Amino acid sequence: MVNAAKVLQDLRASAERKPDVVVRLGKPLVESGAVMKLDADAWLVYEQVAIAALDVGDDALAQKCIQALETKFPGSPRVRRLNGMELEAKGELLEAAKIYKAILEEDETNVLAAKRQVMLLRAMGMNAEAIAALVKYLDINYPDFEGWLQLADMYMEEFMYAQAAFCMEEVLMLQPQNHIFHLRYAEILYTQDNVQLALKQFCRVVELCKDHVRGLYGIKLCTSRLLKSSPSKDATATSQEDLKAIDLLATERLLAVYSAGSAASAKSASTKWIEHL
Amino acid sequence: MAVQQAPSHLGRLVCLFAFLLLLHSGYSTFEHLSYLKAIDGHESGLPQDIVIELMASVAIFGLGIVMVADDFKEILMETEMAKQTIESLDARPSFYGFSHRGRAVFRNVSFKK
């Protein structure tokens, strides 16, 4: 049981979405009542298992967890948004909308309810309204990088890459040390055909995370595009020699990563393929 | 996900032994002081064997704790960041949507422990 509690805690910290693991570990805890032994963490576990149960379709388990939370925290907006999520999951979107509206009427600044409203609009298929609502939320809550990530995702669904790139820039201002955010920004730039800037961002990815394979591939793609196109007259553009040097470095690192522990036949095949990239 | 080590039974035994040594030296001190009171002797500090027993208990406790403690976590930010994957972008716990097939796929599945 100690093991299960630790795993659940790690999942809460890493924010991964693994509802099958959470339900598998959390259901026995909740049903046997052993969850109460965790003292303060018990309520966090109830919330976590409730959301995972909604993801997995186990409505009875979700209802049980939400009941326990309601008994402990009557009238709390956090519990009421869980009620709203339950209705969302069951498909009763208008009822859920009423709950979120009520929470926001009581407290305009309630972050949880505002975010759920955005997802509710998305679930109803009203993507434009969802984007508008999220933009309004981000106007007030500027440092919420999760919100900017969500907005970038929604813009990309509508193929509005310039706006998505802007959102990723905001994310990078808030969290400059995470190489994954740079990676997504680089890939959006490459999609927009802004190969110069994409190359710089891919280099940043590899700088932050040594030998990141996806970043190295990005570098190779950018350098091969730039080397094929005619040299730009722009003074700030990377020179041809520099491009060739970066290309060589990326090839070297990729070969090193792939040859670490693979059969000789695989090595020669991957060498041939990488060098022709 | 965290990996739990198998509990080190030897480590726990060593810790228990050290704790018993500590208790024993504590009780010896108490007995020694009552003896001194009984013979109206002066308090000249603890006898050497109790001190040695105390030091031994500390040393063995140190050994036991090292055996029982979890593995160290990395101190460099880089090693933690390197574990991030591109899927972590899609995590966003406050923005979960429920219109996915998970509800249909897992509806009647009972997860085995």
UniProtKB/TrEMBL annotation, chain A:
Question: Subunit structure, per the record?
Answer: Component of the ER membrane protein complex (EMC).
What family is this?
A: Belongs to the EMC2 family.
InterPro entries to which the protein is assigned, alphabetical: EMC2-like, TPR-like_helical_dom_sf, TPR_EMC2, TPR_rpt
Organism superkingdom:
Eukaryota
- List the source organism: Podila minutissima
Entry keyword Endoplasmic reticulum: yes
**What subcellular compartments does it reside in?**
Endoplasmic reticulum membrane
Q: What is this protein called?
A: ER membrane protein complex subunit 2
- Say what the protein does: Part of the endoplasmic reticulum membrane protein complex (EMC) that enables the energy-independent insertion into endoplasmic reticulum membranes of newly synthesized membrane proteins.
Membrane association type: Peripheral membrane protein
| Upper classification of the organism | Eukaryota, Fungi, Fungi incertae sedis, Mucoromycota, Mortierellomycotina
Q: Would you tell me the Gene Ontology cellular component terms? A: EMC complex
- List each copy of the EMC2 TPR-like domain by range: 80-188
- What UniProt keywords are attached to this protein's entry? Endoplasmic reticulum, Membrane, Repeat, TPR repeat
- One Pfam family in the UniProt entry: TPR_EMC2
UniProtKB/TrEMBL annotation, chain B:
Sorted alphabetically, which InterPro entries does this protein's record hold?
MMgT
List the signal peptide residues. Answer: 1-28
| Source organism, top-level taxon | Eukaryota
Name the gene for this chain: MMGT1
Q: Which UniProt keywords apply?
A: Endoplasmic reticulum, Membrane, Signal, Transmembrane, Transmembrane helix
Transmembrane annotation, as ranges:
52-69
Identification of the protein by name: Membrane magnesium transporter 1
* Keyword field contains Transmembrane helix: yes
Q: How does the entry describe its membrane topology? A: Multi-pass membrane protein
Binding partners and assembly: Component of the ER membrane protein complex (EMC).
One MF term in the entry's GO annotations: inorganic cation transmembrane transporter activity
Q: Name one GO cellular component term.
A: plasma membrane
Please state which protein family the record places this protein in. Answer: Belongs to the membrane magnesium transporter (TC 1.A.67) family.
Q: What Pfam families would the database entry show?
A: MMgT
Localization (cell): Endoplasmic reticulum membrane
